């Protein structure tokens, strides 16, 4: 059983059992199979997990937010046992129960379906390392090998011809490693001296595979031989299932298989100067009925490095394609013909023997069969010259149904078969390019139509529903991404405007409240409070939608004037009472003035001096009262205490002492 565990900040929040044949969506959408919380960088439908026999495949659907595996960002991942990856702030753990592991190991012995190989580009057509971008191919072209790697940033197998596989001069030998990418297309890398393969970006061949180390293995050429050395990898390297040492290089031959777990590489040794050898073969002058004219010389195979982000190049000129098809066929014919002409003397001797054997075999035929063979041979060559390769093959098959071969019929049928195969491959490529152009045109029409309706969309979901058909064709198409980015920017602008409007409305309301509070105190003639509140309102820089600032400034000036006038009146009364030796009344008048203007230092200072003088008088009077009490003149003492309470303020010390004494004698109880 397959299981996916989800952790948030180290805490397990969900476990999901995965059933082969089902697809699972991970994101913050309510309909997602694994719903994640709202978090920056996580889309509604962010990841998709599907089963591609014999492994589970993880794909990033969102253009935002990064999926991390083994410390690196990845766009896709084959899930092996105990694979761990994370999408901050979430961690994921894929596991397989032991019972199912045994079954899956049995299934590993079953050879996987043959991958879809990339067409050998004998025409020097533009090559690309990018996978077919249609949604259908994206789903079906994956190689079921648990390959957790992305497209290599430096490689594309454009053309590897089989004619130059045999080693020639040792100084001209090069090594070539081949493998298949996630889409089943063949990739390759050619080198003359050394090649480092690993997961690191600084390797000659970079493959994002979960079994691959940063620097996994290296192939070196020494003394005209090639040796492989494991670079201390975690999962080891094997050649034809034989482990490779980390300190003793192992020789590899052309045709050997290098493997890392279930990731396979084919190694070949080729002669770089094969084309030059062909060009040195003399031209055949005798164009008899059994010979074909020598075509022009050809160039050898080549490997083109393609950048990681290079997009598919589409040939839009059908006429040019037809010329290239004809050129490819013309170039294919001499490859085998020249091969037949190598070592002419030896071939001439062998041809005598072959002719003898052919004559003997041919003589055993009936006259009717002989005529069929001769006619079919001539007709087959005629079909070849007319580029009717299917008919060519049929005629030579008639011959081979009668006798094993006639003259060079075996070589000629081989030429026809290869030319027909190349012609079909080119037609397949043309069909792919035609579909790609139709896809591009359809996407362009959909996107432009949705752009015309852009102002009608209120949300990104509505906009995405308009381009839903295009997204199913090619979700990462630049035109779709640009359209979505435009919608996202518009939504962000609308959110920013709404937030700014809300902030302004909040400030307006705060300003209204501040003004109303100040105005209320002003109307109650609480001028000091009104002044403070008016100052606070004016200093707040609140948006003034009703012209309150001008009114506040005017009322502030009025409040200051009236406060000064009122305080001056009360302070004048305080001074008059003081001059009249009415200390108690003077203090009360000063208290009224300070209640209006608590920050008036002049009034506060004057009140303090009055209180000090009052206390001196009350102290003397209280001491006299105590003396009378001690002398037994209680009535006289009582009169003095009453006088103190009459002249002193209630909060003063001697007022309270006098009150206490009178209560002692039953007065005031």
Topology:
Elements: E1 2-8, E2 11-18, E3 24-27, E4 34-35, E5 47-52, E6 55-60, E7 67-69, E8 72-74, E9 76-79, E10 83-87, E11 90-96, H1 98-107, H2 135-140, E12 173-180, E13 186-191, E14 194-198, E15 205-206, E16 217-222, E17 225-230, E18 238-239, E19 242-243, E20 250-252, E21 257-260, E22 263-271, H3 274-279, H4 318-341, H5 344-363, H6 367-385, H7 389-402, H8 409-452, H9 460-466, H10 468-473, H11 478-523, H12 527-539, H13 548-579, H14 583-596, H15 601-630, H16 634-647, H17 653-664
Parallel strand pairs: 3-4, 14-15
Antiparallel strand pairs: 1-2, 1-11, 3-5, 5-6, 6-9, 7-8, 10-11, 12-13, 12-22, 14-16, 16-17, 17-20, 18-19, 18-21, 21-22
Helix pairs in contact: 4-8, 6-7, 6-8, 7-8, 11-12, 11-13, 12-13, 13-14, 14-15, 15-16, 15-17, 16-17
Description:
It is a single chain. The strands form five sheets. Strands 13-12-22-21-18-19 form a six-stranded antiparallel β-sheet, with no helix packed on it. Strands 4-3-5-6-9 form a five-stranded mixed β-sheet, with no helix packed on it. A five-stranded mixed β-sheet has the order 15-14-16-17-20, with no helix packed on it. The protein is an alpha+beta fold. Helix 15 packs antiparallel against helix 16. It has 17 helices and 22 strands.
CATH class of the largest domain: Mainly Beta
**Proportion of residues in helical segments:** 40-55%
Q: What is the SS-derived class?
A: alpha+beta
CATH architecture of the largest domain: Sandwich
CATH topology of the largest domain: Tumour Suppressor Smad4
| Major sheet: arrangement of strands | 13-12-22-21-18-19
Q: Please describe the biggest sheet, giving its number of strands, its sense, and whether it closes into a barrel.
A: 6 strands, antiparallel
Shape: elongated
Q: Would you count the extended β strands for me?
A: 22
The total of helices stands at: 17
Mean pLDDT across every amino acid position: 78
List low-confidence stretches. 100-168, 281-318, 338-360
Beta-strand content estimate: 15-25%
When the domains are counted, the total is 4
Rg from alpha-carbon coordinates? 50 Å
Gap from first CA to last CA: 95 Å
């Amino acid at each position: 059983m397959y299981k996916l565990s989800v952790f948030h900040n180290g805490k397990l929040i969900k476990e999901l059992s995965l059933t082969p044949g089902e697809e699972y969506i991970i994101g913050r959408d309510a309909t997602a199979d694994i719903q994640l919380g709202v978090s920056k960088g996580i889309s509604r439908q962010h990841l998709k997990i599907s089963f591609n026999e014999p492994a589970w495949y993880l794909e990033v659907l969102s253009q935002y937010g990064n999926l991390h595996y083994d410390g690196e960002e990845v766009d896709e991942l084959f899930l092996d046992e105990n694979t761990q990856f994370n999408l901050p702030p979430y961690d994921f753990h894929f596991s397989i129960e032991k019972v199912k592991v045994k079954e899956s190991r049995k299934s590993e012995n079953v050879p996987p379906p043959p991958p879809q190989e990339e067409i050998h580009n004998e025409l020097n057509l533009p090559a690309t390392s990018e996978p077919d971008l249609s949604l259908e191919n994206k789903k079906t072209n994956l190689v079921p090998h648990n390959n957790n790697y992305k497209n290599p940033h430096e490689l594309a197998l454009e053309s590897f011809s089989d004619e130059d596989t045999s080693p020639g001069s040792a100084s001209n030998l090069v090594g070539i490693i081949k493998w298949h990418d996630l889409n089943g297309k063949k990739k390759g890398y050619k080198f003359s001296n050394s090649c480092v393969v690993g997961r690191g970006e600084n390797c000659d061949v970079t493959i994002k595979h979960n079994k691959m180390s940063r620097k996994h293995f290296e192939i070196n050429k020494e003394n005209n031989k090639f040796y492989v050395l494991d670079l201390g990898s975690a999962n080891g390297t094997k050649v034809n299932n034989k482990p490779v040492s980390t300190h003793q290089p192992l020789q590899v031959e052309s045709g050997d298989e290098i493997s890392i777990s279930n990731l396979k590489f084919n190694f070949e040794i080729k002669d770089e100067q094969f084309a030059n050898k062909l060009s040195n073969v003399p031209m055949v002058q005798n164009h008899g009925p059994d010979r074909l004219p020598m075509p022009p010389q050809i160039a050898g195979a080549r490997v083109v490095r393609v950048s990681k982000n290079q997009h598919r190049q589409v040939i839009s000129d059908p006429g040019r394609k037809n010329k290239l098809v004809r050129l490819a066929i013309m170039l294919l014919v001499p490859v085998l013909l020249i091969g037949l002409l190598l070592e002419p003397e030896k071939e001439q001797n062998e041809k005598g023997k072959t002719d003898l054997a052919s004559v003997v075999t041919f003589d055993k035929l009936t006259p009717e069969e002989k005529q069929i063979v001769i006619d079919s041979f001539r007709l087959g060559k005629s079909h070849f010259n007319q580029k009717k390769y299917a008919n060519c093959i049929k005629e030579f098959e008639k011959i081979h149904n009668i006798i094993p071969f006639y003259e060079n019929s075996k070589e000629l049928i081989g030429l026809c078969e290869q030319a027909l195969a190349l012609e079909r491959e080119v037609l397949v490529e043309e069909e792919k390019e035609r579909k790609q152009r139709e896809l591009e045109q359809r996407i362009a029409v959909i996107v432009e139509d949705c752009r015309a309706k852009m102002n009608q969309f209120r949300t990104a979901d509505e906009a995405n529903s308009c381009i839903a058909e295009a997204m199913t064709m090619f979700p990462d198409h630049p035109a779709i991404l640009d359209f979505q980015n435009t919608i996202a920017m518009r939504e962000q602008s609308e959110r920013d405007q709404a937030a700014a409007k809300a902030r302004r409305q909040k400030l307006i309301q705060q300003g209204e409240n501040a003004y109303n509070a100040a105005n209320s105190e002003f109307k109650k003639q609480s001028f000091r409070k009104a002044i403070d509140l008016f100052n606070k309102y004016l200093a707040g820089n609140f948006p003034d939608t009703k012209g309150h600032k001008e009114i506040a400034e005017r009322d502030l000036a009025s409040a200051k004037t009236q406060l000064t006038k009122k305080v001056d009146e009360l302070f004048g009364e305080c001074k008059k009472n003081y001059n009249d030796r009415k200390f108690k009344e003077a203090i009360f008048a000063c208290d009224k003035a300070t209640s209006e203007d608590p920050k008036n230092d002049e009034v506060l200072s004057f009140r303090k001096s009055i209180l000090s003088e009052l206390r001196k008088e009350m102290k003397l009077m209280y001491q006299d009262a105590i003396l009378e009490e001690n002398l037994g003149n209680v009535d006289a003492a009582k009169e003095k205490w009453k006088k103190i309470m009459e002249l002193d303020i209630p909060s003063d010390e001697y007022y309270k002492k006098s009150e206490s004494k009178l209560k002692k004698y039953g007065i005031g109880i």
